[in-house]
## 1
Amino acid sequence: MTTESTTLLPIATGRRTLTQLRALVRPRRSRLAGALALLIAGTTAGLVVPPLLGHLVDLATGGGSAGDVVLTGVGLVAAAVVEAALAGFGVALLAQVGEGVLADLRERFVSSALHLPLEQVERAGTGDLTSRVTNDVAVIAEAARSAVPEFTRAALTIVLTLAGMAVLDWRFLVAALIAVPVQAHTVRWYARRAVPLYARQRVAVAAQQHHLLATIDGAPTIRAFRIADAHRDRVATRSRQAVDLLLRGVALQTRFYARLHVAEFAGLAAVLGTGFFLVRGDLVSIGTATAAALYFHGLFGPVNVALALVDDAQAAASGLDRLVGVADLTPPVRQRAVAGDGPDAVVVRGLDFAYRPDRPVLHDVDLTIARGERVALVGSSGAGKTTLAKVIAGVHRPTGGSVVVPAGEVALITQEVHVFAGPLVDDLRLARPDATDDEVSAALDTVDALGWVRQLPDGLDTEVGAGGYVLTAAQAQQLAFARLILADPPMAILDEATAEAGSAGARLLERVATAALAGRTALVVAHRLTQAVSADRVVVLEAGRIVEVGTHRDLIARGGPYATLWRAWSDQRARH
Amino acid sequence: MTGGRSLLADALGGQRRLISLSTLLICGHQAGEAAVPFLIGVIIDRAVDGGVDGLFRWLGVLAAVYVGLSYSYRYGERSGERAAEQAAHDLRLRVTGRVLHERGGAEADRLPGALVSIATSDAARVGAVAIAVASGVAAVVGLALAAILLLAISVPLGLVVLLGTPPLLLLTRLFGKPLEERSETEQEHGAHASGIAADLVDGLRVVKGLRAETAAVARYRQRSRSALAATVRAARAEAAYQGLVLMLSGVFLAVVAVIGGLLALDGQISVGQLISSLGLAQFLVGPMSTFGWVGADIAQGRASARRIAAVLDTPAAVPDGAASPVTPVRGGLALRGVDSPPLRGIDLEIAPGELVGIVATDPAEAAELVRLLGRLHDPAAGVIELDGVALATLAPDDLRAVVLAVEHQTDLFDDSVRAAVSLAGRARPASVDAAVAAADADEVAHGLPDGLDTVLDDRARSLSGGQRQRIALARALAGEPPVLVVHDPTTAVDAATEARIAGRLRSMRAGHTTILVTTSPALLAVTDRVIVVHDGTVRTDGTHGDLVAEDDTYRETVLA
């Protein structure tokens, strides 16, 4: 299918992101102020060093005493200790603020993501969400952890150093500022090229990752069909593309630094020249000129750090926009009408539905399901069974007509089985957080799973899911039914829940499904007609229309479409 | 056996020209960086006793040094990064090649995600050693050059720096190491939170299906908070370490300054030389901190090289074979006394060209049988023969050219439907069309925007299970393998379609040995004969009709 997925989830504007960040920082603003105060004090302590060294030079030229020299040395040590201590505490405090903001943000993101309407997720795919919650969060975490403290310290050093130079003599500041236009121009030049290049880089690296995963995951298939060469070539091509883009990024960076070297040289020459003439004119001491030169030389590092972080900042900012975009969504209010205590659980009237206006899927569907009734939905592939199930479950909104379902009472179990990473019992408690161990065991027993769960290395506490003990598809399905029992909704919709287990496994799951559905209103999308036999009523769908409704027995007797389907199904089973 | 050490040597050895070039140039850059503070002293000295032309001459020298250091940095960095990226790229392909190797084994006991991370992150870390080596050597050179300049200014000052540096480095490392280790474990803790979030998003449909959003959010919040506590601890350790380094280098500078000051006071060195030595002492902080990260990068690179080597060295799942299949292939199969849990002593024979169904009452037995025929591994005991030649004596790839064994769980890849079915262009176009029709995949293609040329992304997850199965079955048929084994290929396909597919499958496979491992009556109905496997061994065989009529277990298994 074609991809139109990336644009379907919102991305916040820069302004909105900033507002949100400010709101997140607000409760921590006293800590932030403390961190900045510590860092300013620390940097100032460090800036005492060049003047002290200058003083040393003056002592050497002006005939000071050995005691003075040692005393200056003591001052240098004191400056180093104070700077180190204050900077250490400041950075730690700053990181605490940054990490706290990040944690708040990722929690809000996960909350919004889980509350997204399923329809939107279906259209956008989960890939975008996953990449936001992993890649973007990682980029921002990296920024919060190192870039923000580094940048803050560098920026403070730059500003305070320039102030220090002005204190020595204002002419030194003027000389130093010669470098600024070159640097400003360089950063603009760089950002213009770097931003699109890094965007392409990220895409290429993600594509490489994606292909590697598909290739490695599919290794048995690739070996069986002997298409390893083609796949190796594809991985090589993707890897080569990523490498080329990464190297282009390196080339761009080195050109960036070459330009900064020019700025460094221009500034340094100007400061040295200024010192030369000021010393000759007896306007400053040689110690002061030394201090100025050392100040400027000491700026190289922080300037490079601050400017190099421009692209980290870019990446983090775009990641933030993507996180805030989702985190900002207000959970939609469920707008389904609540049916009263009437006998009917589901009432569908004149329902039309289309994914695309030119391709209608369901036409004028009328269906009523009574409370406690078990209805099987049958029909050939492509008849619209899954779509009807999803519309009733509230995943899709009808294009026309109405669907009335009790709010919040419908559980939908699809063929997509997922086992959550962590202890198995935690997976089940997602469905009912306050379930006791006995209730969990009882649910597992009902779905015939208690036996094998007890055999697991740590029983109920065994780590399962990604990175844990690997369960078979059928076991994962049993867990899905156990969750259903624990969640205990009055109504459940089952779609292809037994399809992927292979036919022998399917029968086990059918039995399990029956147990899990006991006492519930149920709509079962039946791929195996045995599911229809045991249903209270069978609904036959053909090309998006309901063509027959009735019990298995009645429909067989009627000799219509269902009877034909049944014959195809049972012929293979009964004849010969 | 590769081993981590020799893998690292190999990977870097392949890039030795680039690495040497990079080392040379970065050394030049370091030399330039060392010369700048030295020149600052010289130029300030001119203010005391030189003329304006002296100033400009030395500024000219400074300019020349800048040109040199800038260009050597530019090209040194580029060649270093190129070496790193190329080494990583080569390793990535070696890992991919090993995973896809016909004899298999590399993916056993490893999650696909872990293998991807080895092929990307670990490969990149090994590559990064190239840069670490170049930078480390250059730092040594820079340090030596600074020492020589200092020795030229004053022997005692030079000695202080030369003798003072190693203990300083040692001290930094001593204090730094435990802090660094602690910070790393705490960071891993933090990374766990994002793993949990990704897992919840992966299971989004399940969460929403059960309306368990609130419970899931609460659980995530709990994990996120404990991760936060861990990362804050890590950040504190990191900050303490940085403070320590800052303090040590500051104290070192103070010592050099005091000794230099005393020497200048004594008239042993000039003021310019004092300034130069102060500048050089400040410069030394750079190369010294380089040692810190170079050491860490090399250690990481080694650990990564070990992980990569472990993948490359994983024993193959099956031994290689030297024999060739009989040509032309007749397609007769025989299993004699085959033991491979849960199978116990399977004996069966399949004639060339026969269409056989195999019904196993336990799905695990069926899956094991398919794996054995595809030689994903060999049986513990017994022998499987193709036209009288033992499978274990055939090279796996030669075998698979003749016997295509498709497991129930089979993957589709991101490509067009046509590309998937045609096996990267290997299948004849005519048989591709026939296979697509036989598997009823043309109907699937009909519903797609560009028909057979529609590109499936995200491994065709946007298709329904039945649609995916039909495309996968078409792919199995298209290559016209002399022997085809398929396992439950149509479980998600409706009964009417399944019956249609069964009939066409029979005519498309006429004359070629075909084994349908399934319990689907629609498929079994078109077979010549059905073999029933129960409790790990062959229980009986016969036609589908006879078995339905006579065998209760069979009826129970097949006609539920």
## 2
Amino acid sequence: MQNSTSVFKLSIIGFGAVGQGVAKVVQNVPQLKVVAIADSKGVALMPDLEDVLARKRAGQPIANSDLTALDVIRTVEHDVVVEVTPTNIDDGEPGLTHVREALKNKRNVVTSNKGPLVAAFSELTHLARTQGVALRYEATVGGAMPIINLIRDTLAGARVLGIRGVLNGTCNYILTRMAEEALDYDQVLSEAQDMGIAEADPTYDVTGIDTACKVVILANAFFDRNATFADVNVTGIDRITQDALQLARQRGFVVKLIGDVQELTVSPKLIPLRHPLNVSGTLNAASILTDTAGEITVAGKGAGSIETASAILSDVLSIMRSRD
Amino acid sequence: MRISMDLELQDTPGQLIYVLTPVSDLGGNVMSVVHHHDKKTFRNTVPVSVIFDVEEHKLEELQKRLEKNGVTVVRIGKMRLRARTHILLIGHIIHTDLRHTIDEIDGTGFAEVQDLSLSMPAIDGPSSAVVTIMATGNEELKKAVEILKDIAQRKDLLVIVPIDESGISGGLSNAE
């Protein structure tokens, strides 16, 4: 066991927007030391963070070794693997292997990657427990908006009866713009793609898949459901018309894509204008119903490089503190 | 107008005809009849609740005919629809026979479609509608919404219902 004055070492596996965000925010914490960064092309060992970030921005390779991401996870001595490769909901790879290997090698894992958790939640949480290490994933749901650690730590002792929320910023942006500017779905989608709010292939967001993954993670984390993606009844926003939103507005409602964790459903719902889940733009919001604390609603930025990195950093720091 | 009437009938078979015939003769439409056999009165009569639609100006005549038939009218109430909700529908609403959808709700006797706004941008494109349903109570409203959802699913319409404000997925039933 290390003592509290020693540095806490981490690797960053995956160096896209989120990975780069992590590299930026860890520089503010002197106790944290990044020992390796892996992108899809190779591994930078003991990287100078400013230099690696500059190279990435310039489109240059960052690798300075022959190691692979798995080599780093298995052989480089460090405390936390930050797994931030892109989400793959088909089989969770390559993230699933990264997380599994990290846990087998008794390394703590912090991830923003939904794939491994949707594919193998109970296997991974069980593995973490038996290995005596932490697996934390605040960044997988709601980006910077605290929800998992909020329930686990701050609301400890309260029984969670239900969780529901606006969990996808892309859908929320599209619905907000359609309603407020009286624009058609296709037009707002193109606009969102231009702005980088929606992917070139928007299917994952607009058909509700992303929200369903978050519902699965929360259901497994707090309702012990052992649910998978197939258990969620999913309806997306791609059939919603601008006319429908105007009609709803005249009756005092907005339409939001709502993930309901207890019901295991994702579907557009009418939300009264003054309802706490009526957040606009790319914001996320979630209401947590508990037996003792009643209903608690949080809102925050659901995506973005630095915002997601902030959630990862909070997981890393809480592991570091629990070791002290 | 929808009327709810509390009556007392003799506890012998065949009494209901004395109620239904006058209603029908005056152009009324009976929605629901409930016998309260468990609440028999000391006069040996059985309370019966009847819900029907009839034109308001015929109500007085109806009451006379019922009393002539020996039916005791205990209470006449213009039925109040207390619970209300709005539902969005998106799809080929017109092509799929809107009338039928409304009739099924109105036919329940406890709920009715009060308002419907339709927006139809192009003849071959999807239409959007907001339907306002009123019912005698929350349970009845829930049933009416389920009926609408069922029809919509068969007709491949997207149904968007309000978020349940009584709590999260019924979770409040366990909580204070």
